[in-house]
Amino acid sequence: MYLAGHKWDGIGEMKYVGFDNFTYLFTDPTFWSALVNNIALWIMGNAPQLICALIVAFLINMSIVRFKGFYRIAYFLPNITAMVAVVIIFQSLFGNQYGLINFLLEKIGLSRIEWFNTPFASRVVIAAMICWRYMGYNAIIYLSGLQRIPKDLYEAAELDGASTVQTFLRITLPMLKPIILFSVMMSTIGGFQIFTEPQVLAGTQSPYPGTDTVVLYMFREGFTFQNYGYAAAVSWVLFVIIGILSLINWKVFNKNDD
């Protein structure tokens, strides 16, 4: 907070500027553009992977599924894969000219997509990386919660003639509520701290439209332009945004609790 109230290049003398850094921040269109991109990536990347992770965990936990250990390892592997390797793979998949996705689109009679030339398409690429990387991680967390649910509840539901969907909605979701809250809150925090994916994919200067994020913007201001006071102000605004969203998540998930 002390640094956010000053102008400093990291070497020279600090100059007190009060709230000027925050005033400029709220009038900077680049910040708002990065925030919009961040929100879009958060929605496109985290919402689908949380839903898919829950479904995958439920399917793995079913009694008819064998080799559960293999599925745990297979789904968790993307989370420990080097991010640079992941980006290289996705660049090959979504390349504008020679990407595998465009090749398949042309084979089925559709036109190729300029993945890195439009904001929405660029966000799709980053969101796909987020889904692929973190779905298994959240699936393992959900699976640990599923294994703590008493099997008697499922057996009673089966005797009562409940379908798989009814069992999932009436037993699994309510019992997993604390685990889901944890995953949603951690994904919210992580979603607004997205940095590695766009930074490795597009570079610090973010040449691809739609790939700039608040953390990338903060990094650029601090370590590229040596404007450390302003970067500190950005970090405080990001902290407040994450805090508000986490509080909203907490209130939504606990609104019916005593």
Q: Mind explaining what this structure looks like?
A:
- It is a single chain.
- It is built from twelve helices and two strands, in the order E-E-H-H-H-H-H-H-H-H-H-H-H-H.
- The protein has helices at 20-27, 29-60, 68-76, 83-93, 100-107, 119-146, 151-159, 164-175, 177-191, 196-202, 214-224, 228-253; strands at residues 6-7, 15-16.
- The protein has a two-stranded antiparallel ribbon.
- Strand 1 and strand 2 (15-16) form a beta hairpin.
- The chain is globular, with a radius of gyration of 22 Å.
- It starts with 5 loop residues before the first strand and ends in a 5-residue tail after the last helix.
Number of strands: 2
Structural class: mainly alpha
Strand order of the largest sheet: 1-2
Main beta sheet: strand number and arrangement? 2 strands, antiparallel
Helix content: 55-70%
Q: Poorly predicted ranges (pLDDT <50, ≥5 residues)?
A: none
The rounded Rg comes to 22 Å
> What gap, in angstroms, lies between the N and C termini?
37 Å
User: What is the element string, with H for helices and E for strands?
Assistant: EEHHHHHHHHHHHH
